[in-house]
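dumping this here before i forget
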Amino acid sequence: MNKMSIRFFNDREVRAVWDDENSKWWFSVIDIVAVLSESEDARNYWYVLKNRLKKENSQLLTICKGLKLKAPDGKMRLTDVLDSEGVIALAKNFPNNRAVKFLDWFTYSDNTIDGQSKKKAYTLFESDLLKSLDAGTVKCLQQIHAYLFGGLYDFAGQIRTKNISKGGFTFAPCQYFDVTLNTIERMPETTFDEIIDKYVEMNVAHPFMEGNGRSARIWLDLMLKRSLKLCVDWSKINKNDYLNAMRKSLTNSENIKLLIKNALTDKIDDREMFMKGIDYSYYYEENE
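structure:
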């Protein structure tokens, strides 16, 4: 059980671990209790609730089991977990206004385009695609995008042919993409500064109709791995800090360079690091 996941509900982490034998996710009870109770001491809240459920001979506790999950201090610690059925049953023990909102997120998030794409992203680590990609090329970025969004968007992997804007900013005009993307592709990627400059320019270009950020962050990591034997521990970069730095990078890239430099790690072949990176990358794209 080494396939880990971190999901986010109202900026709170919900840790999960994949069970290969039974082909399902197990979710941290403490994390879910923290979300549903809004308590600062979720562990004690669960202790009290668990004792009450025992007295009621609740079947929920027959579903609950103990597995090791990474704690905030970085150590693997035994914690109570529930499968999807158990999580839904647990939520019924909390005020309806909290439980309904949480269950809407929990039961439907995996069926959205982002949810399906995220599942595809997880499998990238085990696929042969990452090993075959020519890092830093436009084709590489297209292949990543096609893998993440194939079957979800009819334009998966295709350079956009319409102009788009976001937050009042208009991205690079598509009629000049032949020159623009060729220029970005030829940018050097030997040093850290060069790689981030290239990443920033590709963000300004925004070559796809949707899914640019999720694809480009994987593209960035591939360049860092090849040239510097490093990658980004995205969990060290706060969502709002990242989004603000990327906005500022349109005129000044110093903030995003500082954020990324402080989050670099040499764990380039670490599966958990990759999975965690995917979790945070998709979290950055969630609407407020």
